Amino acid sequence: MSDRPQRTNTYTADPVTDRYQECLFDWLAAHAPLWNQINYRRRQQYFDEDGDVWDAEYTDLYDKYAPILGKATCQQLARKNSEAWRSHFELLSLYRDESNQSVTEKPSPPGYWGNRDDGYELHGLVRNDLYTFDWNEQRSTVEFGVGDVLEDRYDFEHNERVTLEVRGDPQWRGDDSRLELIYEEHADQLRVQHPVRIQPDDVQEQRQDAFTHTLNRENTTQSAAIDVGANNTLAIVTEDGDTAVYHARPEFERFQAQSDRIATLQSQLPEDQWTSARIRRIYDERSRKRDHSQNAGIKHAGEWLLERNVDTVYIGNLTDVLETHWSAEVNQKTHAFWSHGQLVTRVKVTLGDVGITVTETGEYKSSSECPVCNSDTVTRAGDSFRCHNCELEAHADVAGAWNILQSEVGPMARPAALSADRGRDAPTDGAYWQWNDHDWTPADFGGQSWSPDQPSVSEPVSSQPG
Fold first, then answer.
1. Most-buried pick from 215, 231, 369, 386 (CB within 10 A)?
2. C-alpha distances out from residue 275 to 7, 261, 264, 268, 289, Å
3. Hey, what domains does the chain have and what are their CATH numbers?
4. Mean pLDDT of all residues in the chain?
5. What is the pLDDT of residues 68-105, one digit of tens each?
6. Per-residue pLDDT reduced to its tens digit, 340-372
């Protein structure tokens, strides 16, 4: 069972009655105190030089919380806390591995879900066999049980369960996993995370159902390369010279604004406090918006590649590149907003599910050498790339992807839509894409990710990732 791929459906929901809503919020509010007490005992062991987090005893807490949550939910909460600690130790191991640059900041141990003064996160769990979905064209619902105390408090009849109306369609079909309910106070919205485990042979078929195009192996297939970056999420070049660029500066500006808001709120906290419920909500919203745009971009790119019958993709591995930090803003882009490892993993999963083979390859100097003459006498400023030897002018990330592809498949034709400029070489066929909070659409003028504070193209600058 553990080897079966897991995918997550996401919905929004509302309780179908006021009574269920009051019961739901009481049930959600009891999760955080239990999480915090389990986590406190494990943190005490963690910071004790002779302690072991797995020796922490917490089952006595079930007697207090099971009447509200149900014993099965208490066990699920403890299991999720164990998963958080295992993830922490995995990240800590990567951080301590000097040969691995995917984790450059020391990870913190799992934190608390709020406190009594600032409020608790409203986050609930339901074991996979204790909820039921009812899908209907008019109204879909999910039902689950609560503890005896809440059943008595809200006059539940025999076998009555909390019922939520669900909005959204399941993208993935499979065996139910643990259900998670998250109430987002800033949006006044209840989000439902519904993971399912899928038979390995079914993943590709289900993924293809969500795509318009599929691979046609009876026709000629081709390869492509992807340069992943922080200024441009993806820059793609195919063997036929087709290009696509998904620029990310507007999303980074939003991410940066939320980061500044977090820093301001943290500066206002008491000296012995480092976070609050409001700060955690902004963190969550910041990450979710970033992930949404990136995931949608990868799916859009998958369609674009399938339309061109691409079956092999090479993607840059930035282990060497990420060792150099140029500025605080670049650090924030590469290690917080960009989340390179997460992005590459998502590319591998999404494209792999539709039959495209994804291979990581070296990207060192891919954007600081000319793809035409191999000269390193180049200037890169923002998206603009210029070779002073052969006078090539190109989009820096397209040049990077071009270099990656040529290193794998050999010399190829000059990409048709190559320039980052607004001038004669700017593409008019939608090769440049921008995010509008919902979809990736053709960029205005078909243009570049440019900002007025970029250095002039004539000023030599250090090469840096996308």
1. 231
2. 31, 13, 11, 10, 21
3. 6-200 (no CATH), 211-446 (3.30.420.140)
4. 82
5. 999 999 999 999 999 999 999 999 998 898 887 667 77
6. 677 888 899 889 888 899 998 876 566 678 988
The separation between the first and the last C-alpha atoms of the chain, rounded to the nearest angstrom, is: 39
Task: Tell how far CA 414 is from the center of its chain.
Answer: 33
Strand runs labelled E in 302-428: 310-317, 357-362, 378-381, 384-387, 393-395
Residue with tokens 């899908």: 135
**254 φ/ψ sector (left φ>0, alpha ψ -120 to 50, else beta):** alpha
How is residue 455 written in tokens?
């250095």
Residue 85: name the closest of 16, 117, 151, 38 by CA.
38
Residue 230 tokens, joined: 């922080």
Rounded to 10 deg, the angle between the 31-47 and 62-69 helix axes is 150
Is the per-residue pLDDT at 127 higher than 50? Answer: yes
Of 68, 37, 41, give the one whose Cα is nearest residue 55: 41
Q: Is the pLDDT reported for residue 453 higher than 80? A: no
Looking at residue 386, the DSSP 8-state letter turns out to be: E
